[in-house]
């Protein structure tokens, strides 16, 4: 599944009162996030992405994404496993003249679609644990 959201951010939107957009997802594992900044944003439009109250992207709490005419690609393995299954995007725009549109895309694997793979990973983890235990006897 791949989600695509566009967020319009007016000029002079302060970090203290950002535009807040909830990205409605479903339970699963995020494998890809893309944050697209339009040409002309001049790194004046900035964003952070949260899952519940935890900052997920970028990971460091004092960090944010900013760019100009660039798509920031993020490959990850981020579990979305408790309701609400939303990401919260906070966006602000220090440009004093122009509004900008931020595009956020999210690739998500539903648990139902990867259940067999997860079971195989769990079996492999148990097997490796067992081998390690046997080495120390």
What is the structure about, briefly put?
The protein has 137 residues and is α+β, with helices and mostly antiparallel strands.
Verbal overview:
With 137 residues, this protein is α+β, with helices and mostly antiparallel strands. The protein contains one helix and nine strands, in the order E-E-E-E-E-E-E-E-E-H. The mean pLDDT is 92.
Backbone structural class: alpha+beta
Taking the alpha carbons of the first and last residues, their distance comes to 46 Å
Residue-averaged pLDDT, rounded?
Answer: 92
Q: What spatial form do the alpha-carbon principal axes imply?
A: elongated
Whole-angstrom Rg: 19 Å
Briefly, what CATH class?
Mainly Beta
* Total domain units: 1
Helix content: 10-25%
CATH topology (fold) name: Jelly Rolls
Q: What letter string, H or E per element, gives the SSE order?
A: EEEEEEEEEH
Q: Tell me what the CATH architecture is.
A: Sandwich
Strand content: over 45%
Number of strands: 9
Q: Count the helices. How many?
A: 1
Strand count, sense and barrel status of the largest sheet are: 5 strands, antiparallel
Low-confidence stretches: none
Summarize the SSE layout with pairings:
Elements: E1 2-9, E2 19-24, E3 28-37, E4 45-51, E5 54-57, E6 65-66, E7 70-80, E8 86-93, E9 100-110, H1 111-135
Antiparallel strand pairs: 1-9, 2-8, 3-7, 3-9, 4-5, 4-6, 4-8
